[in-house]
Amino acid sequence: MKPIDLRSDTVTLPSPAMREAMVRAPLGDDVYGEDPTVNRLQELCADLLGKEASLFVASGTMANQIALGVLTRPGDEVICDQGAHPVNFEGGAMPALWGIQPRTLRGERGLLDPAEVEAAIRPENEHFPRSRVVEIENTHNRGGGSVYPLGTVRAIAEVARRRGLDLYLDGARLMNAVVASGVPPRDFAEGATLVSLCFSKGLGAPVGSILAGDRDRIREARRLRKRLGGAMRQSGVLAAAAIHALENNVARLAEDHDNARALAVALSSLPGVRILHLVETNMVFASFAGRDAAELVARFREAGVLANPEGSRPDVVRFVTHLDVSRDDVLEATRRVSQAAAR
């Protein structure tokens, strides 16, 4: 029985064409700035996101933490949603690495309201931490893969600009938002001081993210990348996979979104199952009527379907579609889930 892996869009394997691109990539030492494939990727992404420069880093977590390290100083505060990735899934890195703290708000499906962002900005007072950065996530993982409307992103950027804060856009799955909304990536990124994009989430590359912004901040980002041990040598092997992903795997994200919607419809027909969020991109959060998600996930695994407990509630399972999952796989996964849940 073939396992159907719906744990995350990070589980994809490089295609033969991607592997061939990696084998043929011209290489150099990126610590010296001499890897031509890394340089090409960075130029490509800076243009894609409408920024002066960009930096190839090892992971989405590294991109997030370098961005926050560049934009803050110890004792500063970052305004973000309570489900934000840097708060929940990065090992406590914000206080551990930079001595900063989050000021979390309760967004609607993870999407912040501009007026609430402005109300959360601290007045200048020696008793308070300094509000320095607004962080938003597009798409928002804990919001079920929700997409920020462009108008909301621009309104939050305007609040940040007017109040003297920086905006950081965690765009780990930004291309999902682009495909779902039809909004160009540089439009989403326009008001952000720094913006990231992950190549191993949905786009099918094995490793890597990009961080983009103005030249001075990217120069500082490069210094922090070195501090974190993220300066890689002949990393064009990995950058070639990222380039291939950008050139070949963006438009096809629509297929993942369609498969996620089909999965949501099929799951919602099962007894006691409720889909928590509107399915806009490639994530489905399913509540199993008070059942224990960890126990269910173990049963699903035995039946050949891999998924994860979502974590915010004990009865919710997260399913994620990706390029290694077909429509037939989605329908077969639903059949297996139905049988396993009924046991």
Give the total of beta strands: 13
Radius of gyration: 20 Å
At the first level of CATH, the class of the largest domain is: Alpha Beta
What is the overall number of helices?
14
Class based on secondary structure composition and strand pairing: alpha/beta
Order of helices and strands: EHHEHEHHEHEHEHHEEHHHEEHEEEH
- Shape from CA axes? globular
Low-confidence stretches: none
Distance from N terminus to C terminus (CA atoms, Å) equals 19 Å
Q: Helix proportion of residues, in percent?
A: 40-55%
Task: Determine the strand fraction and express it as a percent band.
Answer: 15-25%
How is the biggest beta sheet arranged? 7 strands, mixed
Structure description:
With 343 residues, the chain is α/β, with parallel strands linked by helices. It has 2 domains: 16-248, Aspartate Aminotransferase, domain 2 (3-Layer(aba) Sandwich), CATH 3.40.640.10; 252-342, Aspartate Aminotransferase, domain 1. It has 14 helices and 13 strands. It has helices spanning 16-24, 36-49, 60-71, 85-88, 93-98, 114-120, 150-162, 174-181, 185-189, 215-227, 236-248, 253-268, 293-302, 327-342; strands spanning 4-5, 53-57, 76-81, 101-105, 130-137, 166-170, 194-198, 209-213, 273-275, 283-288, 305-306, 308-309, 316-320. The strands form 3 sheets. The protein has a 7-stranded mixed sheet, with helices on both faces. Strands 9-10-13-12 form a 4-stranded antiparallel sheet. A two-stranded parallel sheet has the order 1-11. The longest helix is centred in the last third of the chain and has 16 residues, at 253-268. The radius of gyration is 20 Å and the shape is globular. The two termini are 19 Å apart.
